[in-house]
């Protein structure tokens, strides 16, 4: 069963199309990154999953239940860290978590202290949350999301307000939860974090899906996937023609004795190119492989139109 299934999902706010005919499937057990520039439609999509807003067209199924018609059943099985969550200033951290334990009516006993410890705010558990810093509030909301050992975590920019240590801890908690069998769907603008932990990512732009794949797969679908820098003792036109003839070689340029070959995708192609240069009599003195970062790919996919590649 898919953890999340979106079919033709569309949301219009008057003349703004926030989400435009989105088809997307998140499989059970995945850590899935949901990326897009500001205003791309990420929060709107997440708000539909949580039944905070209703779609104009299309359907969203979450853990096997319709997100609108069966939102209560969905709520019982997921943990949520929404965008702009407001904590109650006069309640303590512990009271917030206890409130979720009661409202979720989970069968399993919840060790509230252990949860607060896990997110690093046990020491502040009995202080009113009004005095918490932004990062402490974010940690508290995460503890609330983890109540009841959910099957699916939906996190809207979970690292907002966290210091570098907090962001790393957030990443570790996401990975630990995933190892325990929880599917994680999260939006983020922190590309290193996404690249480090996601099995797959989707990139949306102006409400439309422009790419969905593994990060390696995305590299394979753009001509900026990998760049090979080769220092040679000299290279002739015939050798260059051999390299240009490779399927997947997007560009070849020469600067003196240095060769720069751009490849769409990673994989064995870079080594085949090196072998071909050697075979063409080019003496290779050194080489360097430069893989595009997810940030490069993000910029590539969101600054001009690309077809969806599954
Ligand atoms: N309640 C609303 N009324 C009118 N327009 C809205 C509303 N909510 C969102 N929008 C519009 O829908 C589009 C998508 O917004 P959304 O908040 O989903 O983007 P996002 O990808 O989450 O952006 P960010 O990265 O900045 O959080 C934007 O053009 C936004 O202005």
**pLDDT averaged over residues:** 88
Strand order of the largest sheet: 6-7-8-3-9-10
Number of strands: 14
Low-confidence runs of at least 5 consecutive residues? 306-310
Question: Strand count, sense and closure of the main sheet?
Answer: 6 strands, mixed
- SS-based class: alpha/beta
In whole angstroms, how far apart are the ends? 19 Å
Helical stretch tally: 11
Element-by-element helix/strand order:
EEEHEEHEHHHEHEHEEHEHEEHEH
**Spatial shape:** elongated
- From the alpha-carbon coordinates, what is the Rg to the nearest angstrom? 24 Å
**What is the CATH class of the largest domain?**
Alpha Beta
- Beta fraction: 25-35%
Q: What's the CATH H-level superfamily name of the largest domain?
A: P-loop containing nucleotide triphosphate hydrolases
Bound molecules: adenosine-5'-triphosphate
CATH T-level topology of the largest domain: Rossmann fold
Going by CATH, the architecture of the largest domain would be 3-Layer(aba) Sandwich
Structural domains: how many: 2
What proportion of the residues is helical, as a percent range? 25-40%
Domain ABC transporter: 4-231
Family: Belongs to the ABC transporter superfamily.
InterPro entries: AAA+_ATPase, ABC_transporter-like_ATP-bd, ABC_transporter-like_CS, DrrA1/2-like_C, P-loop_NTPase
Keywords: ATP-binding, Nucleotide-binding, Transport
């Amino acid at each position: 069963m898919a953890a999340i299934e979106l079919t033709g999902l569309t949301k219009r706010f008057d003349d703004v199309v926030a989400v435009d005919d989105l088809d997307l499937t998140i499989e059970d057990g995945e850590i899935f990154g949901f990326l897009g520039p500001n205003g791309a439609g990420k929060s709107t999509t997440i708000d539909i999953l949580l039944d905070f807003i209703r779609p104009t067209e299309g359907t969203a199924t979450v853990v096997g239940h319709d997100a609108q018609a069966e939102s209560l059943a969905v709520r019982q099985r997921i943990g949520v860290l929404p965008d702009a969550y407001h904590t109650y200033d006069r309640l303590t951290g512990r009271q917030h978590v206890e409130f979720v334990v009661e409202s979720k009516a989970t069968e399993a006993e919840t060790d509230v202290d252990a949860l607060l410890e896990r997110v690093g705010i046990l020491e502040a558990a009995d202080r009113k949350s009004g005095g918490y810093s932004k990062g402490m509030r974010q940690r508290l909301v995460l503890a609330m999301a983890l109540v009841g050992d959910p099957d699916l975590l939906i996190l809207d920019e979970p690292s907002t307000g966290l210091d570098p240590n907090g962001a790393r801890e957030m990443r570790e908690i996401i990975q630990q939860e995933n190892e325990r069998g929880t599917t994680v769907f999260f939006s983020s603008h922190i590309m290193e974090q996404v690249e480090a932990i996601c099995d797959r990512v989707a990139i949306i732009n102006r409400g439309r899906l422009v790419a969905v794949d593994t990060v390696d797969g995305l590299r394979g679908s753009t001509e900026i996937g990998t760049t090979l820098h080769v220092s040679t003792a000299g290279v002739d036109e015939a050798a260059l023609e051999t390299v240009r003839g490779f399927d997947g070689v997007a560009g070849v340029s020469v600067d003196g004795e240095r060769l720069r070959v751009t490849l769409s995708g990673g994989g064995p192609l870079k080594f085949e190119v090196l072998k071909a240069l050697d075979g063409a009599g080019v003496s290779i003195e050194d080489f360097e492989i430069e893989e595009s970062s997810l940030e490069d790919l993000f910029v590539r996919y969101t600054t001009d139109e690309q077809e969806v590649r599954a």
